[in-house]
User: What shape does this take?
Amino acid sequence: MIVMLMVVVLVIVMLMMVIVVVMVVVMVEAMLIMMVVVTVVVMVVMIVIVLIVVEVVIVVEVVMIVVEVVMKMLVWWWLWW
Assistant: This one.
């Protein structure tokens, strides 16, 4: 009887240990997946922000160049007349 009880207790303890280990592993995996997802989202957001900034800078440069050319044309035209 005592041996049977000890075996049952051991089995229960082992099962509990296995459940705890599985829970810890699942928690760690969930945390890792969350970290990966957050990292990917942050990277995508950073890339989008960089692209938007680059686009704005390019547009501003083009506008500046166009304004400069137009001003020069106007000045030349004015001088010509």
Summary: The CA atoms of residues 47 and 53 lie 10 Å apart. The mean pLDDT is 92. Helices lie at 2-80. Residues 2-80 form the longest helix (79 residues).
